[in-house]
Amino acid sequence: MVSTASRLAPYAQVKQHLKDGLASGRWAPGELMPSEAELVAAFGVSRMTVNRALRELQAEGLVLRTQGVGTFAAPLHRVSSTLTISDVHDEIVARGHRHQARVHLQRAERAGAALAAQLGLAEGAEVFHVLIVHLEDGLPLQCEDRYVNPAEAPAFLQADFTQHTPTHVLFESTSLWRAQFQVDAARPTAQEASLLGVAADEPCLVVVRRTFSRRAPITIARLVHPGRRYTLQGEFEP
To answer: What does the alpha-carbon distance between residue 162 and residue 190 come to, in Å, rounded to a whole number?
Structure first.
């Protein structure tokens, strides 16, 4: 019988037990791991609790799950990097610095064909558009050019983006289901260079991010950072 004496939440206890086993080689890559029923009995928790632990391990690339068959230890090549959707305000504050936002654009517009397709809308449909520069201790760190599907966030334009970032507003008002990322090293546009106070040929880190609810695309954002002021970091923990 596995002891559940821990400060961790029940699902986290199950998850940590399995992670520890994987790290120690208890289950070799491709080997069948304990079933949901076995884990329910061992930890005295619900099937929903066990399922959450397994889903999180699968999302981290540590296990493979096959419906009707079971859970298997993932081959090492299955481990993948993950980008987390974070709020630039929270990133800056976590470094002990001051965040400030300058709103250059906040309005409804008509979508052209390419943008409409990205947001799952008809050409000419209304979209919400914001252009904001985020500063860290007074220095421009990110130029955010964002379009939002009004059907997914009807009150988006009513927000005060000097007080709350678009990311925060969308986290609070939508049901995020999945996201797509594209990261490039590129030169800024003339407008972006002017807003960020950098040279037109300065290398920048450009992140294009699109998020979805279960119904439709929510938003597409182009996030441009001066390369010398910003580093994209990630972490993997077995």
So the answer is: 24
What's the distance, CA 31 to chain centroid? 30
Q: Which CATH architecture has domain 88-226?
A: 3-Layer(aba) Sandwich (3.40)
DSSP codes of every residue in the chain: -----SSS-HHHHHHHHHHHHHHHTSS-TT-B---HHHHHHHHT--HHHHHHHHHHHHHTTSEEEETTTEEEEPPGGG---------HHHHHHHTT--EEEEEEEEEEEE--HHHHHHTT--TT-EEEEEEEEEEETTEEEEEEEEEE-TTT-TTGGGS-TTTS-HHHHHHHHS---EEEEEEEEEPPPHHHHHHHT--TT--EEEEEEEEE-SSSEEEEEEEEEETTT---------
Domains of the chain, by residue range, sit at 10-78, 88-226
Q: Nearest-CA neighbor of 223 among 196, 205, 199?
A: 205
Residues 111 and 109: their CA atoms lie apart, in Å, by 6
- Average pLDDT per consecutive 10 residues, the chain (238 residues; last block may be shorter): 60 91 86 94 94 87 85 67 72 91 98 94 97 96 97 96 95 86 92 96 94 91 90 55
Class of domain 10-78 as given by CATH = mainly alpha
pLDDT for 14: 94
CB 29 within 8 A of CB 71: no
* Residue 77: Cβ-neighbour burial (10 angstroms; 0-12, 13-18, 19+): exposed
